[in-house]
Amino acid sequence: MKLHVLPLIVLAAFPVAAQKEKIAEIQRDMLLMQDQIRALQRSQDEKLAAMQVLLQQTLEAANKANTAVAVLDSALTARLKEQEKMVGAPVANLGSKVDTMANDFAGVRESITDLSARLGKLQNQITDINSAIKTLQAPPAPPPPPAAANPNGPPAGVTAESLYNSAMRDKTAGNSDLAIEGYQSYLKWFGNTDLAPNAQYYIGEVKYLKGDYDGALQAFDTLLEKYPDNAKTCDAMLQKGRALVKAGFKAEARQEFTSLIKKFPTHENASKAKTELAALGVPARAPARNTRKR
Question: What is the reported pTM?
Answer without folding.
Answer: 0.49
